[in-house]
Specification:
Helices cover 16% and strands 31% of the residues. It has 404 residues and is an alpha+beta fold.
């Protein structure tokens, strides 16, 4: 019995020893992860910060880190960012340097250093080695990212734009360092060659972003803002006294039309689908289902060899007069399918004017060459609400093109 007691005592002692070691190691790791950013920065080569309008000398930098303030600089607390330090100029708050700390898979720490002034902001990456007593900071350069590294495979870039030119980056700092292409700068460049395309490009042109992991290797990943489907916005058309008429290129005789439903009428007036082709503002197609018509569709079948199917003109709502137009629903968003394949989303304007759109924009890779027998279906996705009735109408909806 005594032997058993001793054995159990030894086993218990061993258990508590191991537990103590684990606890000590865990505390040490947590202590390492929570190492004060300000202490690490004391030896940072602040003289190499070249984008600040008013430079900060090493002595004043150290004083600011130690006490929170100096003659010209102060530390501003940043909410929800414990591993950062924001040092601002007291006289010019838009002149600042912000440090973000990230753990790596080796003893070194990665710092993103963002310099901000009234005209510009730049970000550089630095590595801090706590095992060194001298030269413990070194600049870290990531592989250059090019424009082609960010864009989707399904879009066409203008040939004048050099895909192999260096991308203008927009870094983000969360759980890691992320690199996105600066969307504003990129779209401004593209719009030089594809005018009026920025709204459609915004979320379907840029597909990728990159993250710098603990191993300090860039990893490619899909951008959370990426949308595979282009969202195309119709353009409101106005009469041009020096140009062709608004309906000059309409091709109503090149297609047949059907719909998922049609509103029945107790009078001679009809709301059949073919009304969209008759070029008569007094008639319209109205879906016939109970409710606002979400999910109802109108479909064109190409019946001729004309070069049509890519572009369309329409008048949204019941345009025979202003009262009828306001009383009934209008279409806000359409889903476009070609031969059963979802191709794009179309945003329509809430106006009585003619408006037009193309489902095959110049910058988007679509294999379709429209031909006789092809079916183009538009499904009502969203509406503008009428003030009296819950029926959704289109007065005019015609493919446009070369149908001479």
């Amino acid at each position: 019995m005594c032997w058993n007691i001793k054995r159990n005592f030894k086993t218990g002692a061993l258990f508590f020893t191991v537990a103590a070691l684990i606890l000590f190691k865990t505390s040490s790791c947590q202590g390492q992860e929570n190492t004060d950013v300000k202490k690490m920065l004391l030896d940072f080569p602040v003289e190499r910060l070249e984008e600040l309008i008013q430079t900060i000398n090493p002595d004043e930098f150290k004083q600011t880190l130690k006490t929170g303030s100096s003659n010209s600089w102060e530390i501003v607390e940043t909410k929800n960012k414990p591993n950062s330090a924001n040092i601002q100029n007291k006289r010019s708050p838009d002149n600042a340097v912000i440090f973000y700390k990230f753990k790596t898979s080796n003893p070194k720490w990665l710092f993103a250093v963002k310099q901000v002034n009234a005209q510009n902001q730049t970000t550089d990456l630095w590595l801090y080695d706590p095992l060194k007593t001298k030269n413990d900071w070194e600049k870290f350069n990531v592989t250059s990212l090019l424009i082609r590294d960010f864009v989707s495979e399904q879009v066409i870039l203008p040939p004048e734009l050099n895909l192999d030119s260096k991308a203008f980056l927009q870094p983000e700092f969360r759980d890691s360092v992320y690199f996105k292409i600066n969307l504003f700068t990129f779209l401004k460049e593209v719009e030089k060659y594809f005018p009026n395309s920025s709204s459609a490009l915004a979320h379907c042109y840029i597909k990728y972003k990159y993250t710098l992991g603990p191993d300090l290797i860039l990893k490619k990943m899909q951008d959370e803002d990426y949308e595979m489907l282009p969202t195309l916005t119709a353009i409101v058309e106005k009469e041009n006294p020096d140009g062709p008429g608004l309906t000059e290129f309409n091709c109503p005789h090149g297609v047949s039309v059907t719909a998922s439903s049609e509103l029945p009428s107790a009078t001679a007036l009809s709301y059949k689908a073919s009304n969209v082709l008759d070029e008569n503002n007094k008639t319209a197609w109205s879906e016939g289902m109970k409710g606002s018509g979400l999910g109802e569709w109108i479909e064109f079948t190409i019946t001729s060899a004309f070069y049509i199917g890519e572009s369309y003109q329409l008048q949204n709502g019941y345009v025979k007069d202003k009262t009828s137009w306001m009383n009934n629903n209008r279409v806000k968003k359409l889903k476009c399918f070609v031969n059963g394949k979802l191709l794009a989303l179309i945003l329509l304007n809430d106006v009585m004017d003619y408006q037009s759109f193309s489902i095959k924009p110049a910058w988007f890779k679509i294999n379709n060459t429209f031909k006789k027998g092809d079916k183009i279906r538009f499904i009502i996705e969203e509406i503008y609400k009428g003030i009296k009735y819950d029926d959704t109408l289109l007065s005019h909806f015609v493919p446009t093109g070369n149908c001479g």
